[in-house]
Design brief:
The chain has 184 residues and is of the alpha/beta class. It has a single domain, classed as Response regulator (Rossmann fold, 3-Layer(aba) Sandwich). 50% of the residues lie in helices and 15% in strands. The chain has a five-stranded parallel β-sheet with strand order 2-1-3-4-5, sandwiched between helices. The longest helix has 29 residues. It is globular. Pfam families: Response_reg. This is Response regulator. It comes from Methylobacterium komagatae.
Length: 184
């Protein structure tokens, strides 16, 4: 590593090149470096949240990203998740979801994504990206195309379509309440 270059700057650079990396596969040593970068970022984010909390006594923001290319289904999931304590952002593609994650990754508690999406990336590629770069976000992947359990990161949850609202709400509650998994 280059002395004097902060880890967060390296992480931001890596995230900006992530679209190219995901198509080639992420080498294990790079994934480990990214996890170390991400582990150092939440401490800074938590300090700034603590300052906001003591100044205005507001709760920290927990974000849910709904990634679905069918507008009606995306709107249904967004409306459902708005009933939780999560702030909700809807995206029709993995690329748009990654843009939100790059800006607000430290706030993301839940990524709820379909396997088939608009754009070049599908939900499985998005799941691998989130698992690698934002391992503290809870991943829920869904599909209605006869997939029983696609090849997902070990920490991801699969819910077949048509999903039951209660199943989605349970995962949202876990994302909002449970402590994020440790970054190793």
């Amino acid at each position: 590593m280059t002395p004097g270059v902060p880890l967060d700057q390296i992480g931001q650079t890596l995230a900006s090149f992530y679209d190219d990396l995901i198509t080639e596969g992420v080498p294990p040593h790079l994934a480990a470096l990214v996890r170390r970068v991400k582990q150092s970022q939440p401490a800074v984010a938590e300090e700034s949240r603590e300052t906001v909390r003591t100044a205005g006594e507001s709760k920290p923001v927990h974000l849910a990203i709904v990634v679905e290319d069918e507008p009606e289904i995306r709107q249904l999931a967004e409306t459902l998740l708005e009933e939780t304590e999560l702030e909700v952002v809807g995206c029709p593609s993995a690329e748009e979801a990654l843009a939100v994650l790059r800006q607000r990754g430290g706030e993301v508690a839940l990524v709820f994504a379909d396997v088939r999406l608009a754009g070049e990336m599908d939900g499985l590629q998005l799941a691998r990206a989130v698992s690698t770069l934002w391992p503290r976000a809870r991943l829920v992947i869904t599909s209605g195309h006869g997939i029983r359990r696609p090849d997902l990161p070990t920490d991801a949850v699969f819910i077949a379509k048509p999903w039951r609202p209660m199943d989605v709400l349970v995962e949202a509650e876990r994302a909002a309440r449970e402590q994020a998994p440790p970054v190793v």
